[in-house]
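Handout, section 4.2: multi-component inputs.
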Amino acid sequence: MAGGGRVVVAGAGLAGLRSVTELRERGFTGQITLIGAETRPPYDRPPLSKKVLTDEGLDPSLKADFAALDVDFRPGEAATGMDAETLATNRGKYPYDRLILATGALPAALPGPGPQRFLRSYDDALALRALLKPGLRLAIVGAGWIGAELATAAAARGGQVTVVEAGPAPLASAVGAPVGAQTSRWYAAAGVHLRTGIAVESVQPGGLALAGGGWIAADEIVTAVGVRPATGWLEGSGVWLENGVAVDSGLRACMPGVYAVGDCAAFESRRFGRRLRFEHWDVALHAPEVVAANVLGGDEVYDPVPYFWSEQFGRMVQYAGYHGDAEQLVWRGDPAGPTWAACWLAVGRLVAILAVDRPRDLLQGRRLIASASPVDVGRLADPAVPVKDAGIPRLTPVFGAGPDVGHLVSWHRSTPRPTLSSVNGCHSSTWPAC
Ligand code: FAD
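Output:
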């Protein structure tokens, strides 16, 4: 490919920006075009539901010097379609040798004619910050991570906050009802009215119509019922879509030369034996290392122990792993107390951990998950015993024990590959005909 080739990146969030910076850091000298639907330069989303809501001075912009990076950044331009050679936008066409899909996710909306707000973009957060005032009757639909963080900020600013959740407990869909229920008392202590097991039928002017005939009056309504991968524009393109862009363990889509990364990508996790999609900042930060390596001819695998954090009601809540196949839940400490952890086990091994104000448990737990060592449940349940000491050393590797993230990162960085690979076919045995 003359001049090192052309890489086009669709989506200028964290994953898109990290993809272009990784390509340059690895010595790629070809042409890079970054297409972003938003008019702003890339920014970080985690602060939007935290400090941006309460702190006027906080700017979440990510440091991106596109001139120094020699990246053709196209803000305010949306990708509308693609084929095997060209990305189409609302403004033009971009031929590519490699295409990285990083269009993230979009919030789901509720039915009904009433005005509903969301908390996904910087502009959403700025608009909400201007509204959060003492006495504001704010109804938040969804007691997930974003709903809890917004409730924290709104209550701190004197709002009358009601959180309506269809599931049996906060965070029930993310971490299961038994663990999520332990956070209910945090809402009450903050003066937030939590109503679980209540389905919203529609958003109406002035409030929420509930299934079964109830009504919740509100000045403002924020819908926080989850997000969907922003992949509608790829329908009919030939890229396999299944809960986002389906990619293999090297983040390659089924079309040659096409990759996906971040919130929009469902990747084959060797560690957990299935294709998974995460909406985690840490994934958007690190997965681009693998994409860049593979765009440049590598054959690297993305196989992290996924990590997520949330700051809610004055607590740091951290989660690592994936508990989809867990058989056993072990409590570490009293969940009614100020600090505790919940540990999920499968086949006698730690597969996920949620830690409340116990960062060391999280760190050690993440390493223990990566090691796939069997654990001593009694020691794991004792908060006085370090999590790392709950692992039972084993002499031979077992299935599913992939490399940890730190190992992958150092391996990538010591393996520069400055040109695009000449071959990038379907590497996965799980693709349908493509
Ligand atoms: P995005 O950040 O969504 O970026 C994708 C970009 O692509 C967007 O700018 C979008 O406008 C653009 N785009 C979409 N469609 C198109 C198109 N057709 N053409 C061109 N551009 C397009 N994670 C944590 O681990 N901890 C947290 O505490 C945490 N807090 C969060 C708080 C909030 C309010 C939000 C919204 C998310 C939070 N997350 C958190 C999740 C984390 O921010 C995301 O996982 C991460 O931003 C994903 O990055 P991304 O680049 O894949 O997607």
